[in-house]
Give the backbone structure.
Amino acid sequence: QVQLVESGGGVVQPGRSLRLSCAASGFVFNTYAMHWVRQAPGTGLEWVAVIAYDGDKKYYTDSVKGRFTISRDNFKNTLYLQMNSLRPGDTAIYYCARAHTGGYQSWFDPWGQGTLVTVSS
Amino acid sequence: EIVLTQSPGTLSLSPGGGATLSCRASQSVSSNYLAWYQQKPGQAPRLLIYAASSRATGIPDRFSGSGSGTDFTLTISRVEPEDFAVYYCQQYGSSYSFGQGTKLEIK
């Protein structure tokens, strides 16, 4: 079955870096766009970034531009989020989610179980 | 940026009742590119509805979506105990944005 499993979360000090991974299985990974979405504790969902099926194009929400980088390895069926210059406001559960298609105008389904990132000194 | 506003913030119902959740967009959502998700505590969101009114695979027919342009509705007929959760709308026509959520709680 289609499965997304995130890893790499943890506690990190402000200004430091962290890389999240999302291992995909059960579908042809290199034909789907992929997203990162985050959810701060007790709050709603915030879209973070998207990457095209071939990794060619990437888009970010304004608050992470220049600090976060989304990437993918289609040979390893894995999505990544490199997070630099982390701030306390980046504290959240980070979910990876698959687009319905290879394009951008698509809903998200399915979602991984999430990985918690806590930015604190 | 399209801002989505959901109402009410919290909806208190008894099992068996009907629920109507609203999602209003700050500008028209192109091609009705609007989805609804359900999230239970400690779980990831689950897709319920896409393209404003199409049910996702495996979603019971008591869930239905409607609307167009700037006003969208998720209706749950005969709420079951497992339906008590937080519901989010999302637009994917112009970048991506989510509403702030509606919590459906047991009365």
User: Anything to note?
Assistant: The radius of gyration of chain A is 13 Å. Chain A touches chain B through 20 residues (CB under 8 Å). The CA atoms of residues 71 and 100 of chain A lie 18 Å apart.
